[in-house]
Design goal:
The protein has about 40 residues and is mostly helical. The chain is about 80% helix and about 0% strand.
Length: about 40
């Protein structure tokens, strides 16, 4: 679950809340796409 691409920006960037929002938004988008492909939509 711990993806380096998500953890590194939070550590190196002073804008931790912004990085967290972007990471969560990207993860949510990937989940939605994955569900759509899984359902054959």
């Amino acid at each position: 679950m711990s993806d380096p691409l998500i953890i590194v920006p939070q550590i190196t960037s002073p804008w931790k809340p912004l990085s967290l929002v972007i990471a969560m938004g990207t993860f949510a988008t990937l989940v939605i796409i994955g569900m759509a492909l899984g359902l054959g939509l």
